[in-house]
Amino acid sequence: MRISQLAERTGVAASTLRYYDDQGLLPARRTRAGYRLYDTADLDRLQLIRTAKRLGLPLEEIGELLDVWSRGACTQVKQSLRPRLAARLAAAQGRAAELAAFVDTLRGALTHLDALPDDPEPCGPECELLDLTDVLARAAPPESARDASAPAVACSLQPEDAGDRIDRWRAVLAGAHREEIADGLRAVVPADRAAEVAELAAAEQSCCPFFSFALHFAHASISLEVRAPAHAKPMLDEVFSSADSGTHSDSDPDSDDRAARIGAC
Predict the structure, then answer these.
(1) Is 228 exposed, middle or buried (0-12, 13-18, 19+ CB in 10 A)?
(2) What's the pTM value of the predicted model, to 2 decimals?
(3) Which structural domain, as residue segments, surrounds residue 36?
(4) What is the domain count for the chain?
């Protein structure tokens, strides 16, 4: 089957399938004309990739797991998978502790707010409405409850959806020239990816509103600027890093008609 057929059958975007091919996770055979071809065995391989991503595994570890899966017995896959899941569980528990602490902070702030009397005068330096020092101190989690490796902010997407979103960003930004800017980064890609970049940016803000995006158009390229608060930098690096070593091939015969999508944007 061709890439469009595999995408329709599995619900995985063609750009993501191309990215998996570039990364060696789902290598495709090629026709003499250059079209990607897949068979039913690739469905099982893709299913393992999707399951691993739903469990929060990064692509590098998924590649290692696929090597074991393709060469070893089921028990070896189990032995390879278990410590990876244990590590993800520990990280998730750390984030859960941070979110629980933030919930306590908000509850304490609401309680503090509701207890204040109504005052017709303007808020001033002595106004208790502005002083949440005690509330924040009471809600602060102990150091032992914090996971230093966890992002300072959280995304509202489920792990599988978040992983797929990252894959789509890395696919559309493959081969991009990146540079750091104040509070974020800039990536320059061919102009025919504008529609997909804009679509992803809009979707990203619905789940991660702390990101801000700006698109600047030139004759043959677009410049995407992504900014985030300092405490969100770990997530910015995770989502927009240049982890891929391949490049996006716009000459691939299986590529989507990007010009049509730009016109519909």
Answers:
(1) buried
(2) 0.51
(3) 3-76
(4) 3
